[in-house]
Amino acid sequence: MDVKLLEILACPLCKGKLEYSKGAQEFICRFDRLAYPVKEGIPVMLEQEARVLTLEELDKR
Prior knowledge:
single chain, five-stranded antiparallel β-sheet, alpha+beta, globular
């Protein structure tokens, strides 16, 4: 993932910093417990496309 993109992307809900999970191809918002997918190299930053993370998943990261 492009470093500049990682620097400017923010959670669309809380505007907080996101973490990139290369293995899962997702952007993670710890505050909202959401994982935004990356489809065909494009981040999909829509709340309805995000999946809710469990507390166990967050602890593993």
